[in-house]
Description:
- This protein has 889 residues and is an alpha/beta fold.
- Helices cover 46% and strands 17% of the residues.
- α16 links the parallel β14 and β15.
- Residues 633, 723, 762, 783, 785-786 line the site of one magnesium ion.
- GO terms for molecular function: ATP binding; kinase activity; metal ion binding; pyruvate, phosphate dikinase activity.
Amino acid sequence: QKFVYDFTEGNKDLKDLLGGKGANLAEMTNLGLPVPPGFTITTEACKVYLERGTEPESLRAEVSEHLAALEERMGKRLGQADDPLLVSVRSGAKFSMPGMMDTVLNIGLSDASVAGLAAQAGDERFAWDSYRRLIQMFGKTVLGVDGELFEEALEAAKHAKGVTTDVELDAADLRGLVEEFKGIVAKETGRDFPQEPREQMDLAVRAVFDSWNGDRAKLYRRQERIPGDLGTAVNVCSMVFGNLGPDSGTGVAFTRDPASGHQGVYGDYLQNAQGEDVVAGIRNTVPLAELERLDKASYDQLMQIMETLETHYKDLCDIEFTIERGKLWMLQTRVGKRTAGAAFRIATQLVDQGLIDEAEALQRVTGGQLAQLMFPRFDEKAEAELLGRGIAASPGAAVGRAVFDSYTAVKWSRSGEKVILIRRETNPDDLDGMIAAEGILTSRGGKTSHAAVVARGMGKTCVCGAEELEVDTKQRRMTVPGGVVVQEGDVVSIDGSSGKVYLGEVPVVPSPVVEYFEGRVDPAAEDADDLVKAVHRMMSYADGTRRLEVRANADNAEDAARARRFGARGIGLCRTEHMFLGERRELVERLILADTDAERDEALGALMPLQKADFVELFEAMDGLPVTVRLLDPPLHEFLPDITDLSVRVALAEARQEPHENELRLLQAVHKLHEQNPMLGLRGVRLGLVIPGLFAMQVRAIAEAAAERRTAGGDPRAEVMIPLVGTVQELEIVREEAEKVIAEVERATGTELRLALGTMIELPRAALTAGQIAEAAEFFSFGTNDLTQTVWGFSRDDVEASFFTAYLEKGIFGVSPFETIDKDGVGSLVRAAAEAGRATRPDLKLGVCGEHGGDPESVHFFHHVGLDYVSCSPFRVPVARLEAGRAAA
Length: 889
Ligand code: ADP
Ligand code: MG
Ligand code: MG
C-alpha cells in the first residue's frame, strides 16, 4: 500500500485519500501553478496510526524516499546547516475544518542551521524570527505547551523595548526570545526542543495525526456531521517566506465575495508576514486591492491564477498565497465557503457564464441555505442607536445580551438567554461559545478571520473587525468612542448583512425572499433584489426537475392560503384536534362526560357544524388540490383540565362549601381517562372505535363541507385519513361506517363526492402488514414522528431533555432521528411498507407528513424510496421544493 504521494502524483478527486488540501495542492501543481514542491501522507496512514497507535511500518522508508526526492529537487537537505531546506507540516482532512487542526511552519530550523538561513537570505532578523515561530508553534501544537506562555514572553519582549508590533523587534531581540522559548519548552516538557530536523518532522506528522481526535476537532465534526473515522492527511510542503521584508507578504483571497456572491477583488493582504498572521488577525491587514499598488506584477499574476482556478473548479475558490521577495506562491485553494445569499447568486451567475448547467446549479445550494434566507431582518425604518460598524461577515439579524467570554455565553444560553458573543477576536477555544450565541461580534480581523470563517460555516450572524468598538474582555464591557459603555448583560443587535451594531433590541422585518414567496415582490421587475431573482430562478429549476410533490401541514384557511402561495400542492395533514380547542373545549367536555347516547349525540351535533365550517374554508383555500383531513388523534384527556389543577379546584370548593358538582364529575372523568402511557393509549383510530359517533360526525362534517363547495361550483378534493391504525380490521370497521355516512350525504345533497379514504402508517405493525392494510386504504401517509417513537421505543417529548445529549456526544446518533429520518431503521420500514402497499394496490398514493417532510436529507430519502409527496409546515414548503429538485437533479 502506498502511503505517500508527491504533489505531482495526486489530483482534486483524491480527497478521501489526500485530504482536501493535499488533493488541491496536487491539482494546482498539475495545472502548472506555482506551488512549493512537497508531498502528502495519506489518510490511510493516519487511520492505521489511530487504530494501532503506531505508524505503518513502511511509512518511514516511504517518507525518506519522498524527502530525498524533494531535497534533490530543491538542491538542499532538510535542516542543512549552511543552507537549510525548511518545510511546513500541514494537516488536511477531506472536509476543511478551519482552525481545528494544527500546522507547523519552518520545520528543519535548529541552532545549527539558523545562521545558514540568515546567510542565505542575507537577513539575520528573518532567520531568528522564523526560528522563534517554529519553537512557538512546535511547542504549542506538537509538545502541548500552553501557547499563552510564548505569547506572554513575546509581549514582554515588546514591552521591554517599548514597541507594539513584532516587526519592530530586531534580530538580537528575537535571538533572545528564541533562548527564552527554548527555556519554556525545557521547563514545561522536561526535554529540550528537538534539534534533529527529521525528528522535528516526524513528531509534527504524528501530532497532526493526533489532532484528529482533539476535542475541538471532534466538536466541529459533530456540529458539521462529519464522520469521525475519516482521518486526516498530512502535507509536507517546502517553505516559502512572506516575512522576508516589505517586498514579501502573505494573503488570502476569494474569487468572488463569499458574503454577497458579487464578482470583484476580495481578500486581505499582510506585508512582511508569515501565513498564520493573517487568519489570526494579529496585525490589521490591508484589502487585497492594495496589492496592486504594492506589487503590480504579483497582483496581476494572482488575478490571472484566480481566474484559472474559477474556470477550472467552476466555482468560487478561496486561496492562500505568499509572496517571497516579489515571487508569488500558491499555498492552498479549495471551493470556498459562502453565505446562503452568495450561494444562490453564484449558482445562477455560473449558469449565465456557461460554466455549469441547471442540474449542477441545484447542487450548489441547499434547503438549509434557503431556510436561512427566509429569516427576518432588521427593520431599516426603526429608530435604533448605532454603536458602530464592522465588516458584514455572515448575514442575519441577531439580538441578545452582550457577553464577553465563551463560558458565559454557554452558561447564559443554557438558561434560556439569547446572547451575543463579543470578543476582540475569536480563536478555536471560542467554538462552543460561538455555537451557543445568537451572533458574534469582534473588533479585529477581516472577512477571513477565524470568527468570520467559522460563523459563515455555521450559518451564524457575525460582524467582525468593528475597530472603533473597544472590547475589554477583562472588565466585560465594550466602549464606544462617543462614550456609550455596553456592559455584560446589556442588549445589543448586530446586522451581519450590513455590519452595523446597535444598542438595544432593533425590531425585525420579513426577508425579501419571504416577500417574494408571499407574492408581494415580482422577481421579474427591473429593480427586484438580485437575491430574489436568483432564488426565483433556482426555484424554477427545482420545480422543473423534481418528481416529489410538496404539500403543507395546515389546519386553517390562512395557513392553507400561505402554503399555497409558497408552492404547496395541497394539504398533506390537516389536524382536526386544533378545531376542538378554544371555546369548543366545553363541547368536547360535554362529549366526554356524556352519560347517555342522547347527551353524546347532542354534543356531537353541536360540534358538527363548527367542524364543517372549518372544512368549507379550508377546501376553498385549497380548491382543486387535495386536502388530507386526519380524524381526531390525541388522547381525550388532552381536552380536559389538568388533573392537579382540577383536584385543587375541587378541594378548594369543598373547603369553601361552594357548589362543585360539575368539577367533581370532570375530575372523575379525568381519573377514568388517566393513562400511564397516553401516547400508547386510547387515541387515534381507537377513539373512533370506542366513542360511538365521533368519527361519523367528523366524516359527515367533511362530506357536507365538500358537498357545499361542490354545489357552490368549487372543486374540493378531500381525503379522509385514519390515524394510528395497527391492523386492517380497525380500518375496515371505520371505513364501513365512513362510507355509509358519505353515501348518505351524497344522496341528501345530490352530489358525487369521490372522497378518498386512507390511513397513516405510524406503527411498526401497520408498516409490517402494509400489504393487507392497502386493501382498505386508497392512500398511505407515513407519520414518521410516531413511527420513529414506536420503532425506537422512545418518547419524543421526553428524550430530548433526558438522554439525547449523551447519545449525540457518544456519537450514537449524528443527529436526532426526529430531525432527520433514521434511514436504516425507520426508513427501511417506510421502504418496505411502500413496496408492500403498492404490490396490493398499484395506484396507492404515498406521502409523508410530520417533521421529516421538511428536512432536507429526509426529503432526498423519500424521493429515492418513491413516495409521491412530502408534507411539511408552510414555511418549510420552499425548502422541500428545492430539496426535492436537488434529489431529482
Ligand atoms: P490551515 O488549514 O489552518 O489554513 P495551513 O496548513 O494552510 O493551515 O497553514 C497555516 C498557514 O501557514 C497558512 O496561512 C498557510 O498559507 C501557511 N503555510 C503553510 N505552509 C506553508 C509553506 N510551505 N510556506 C509558507 N507558508 C505556509
Ligand atoms: Mg490554510
Ligand atoms: Mg401520529
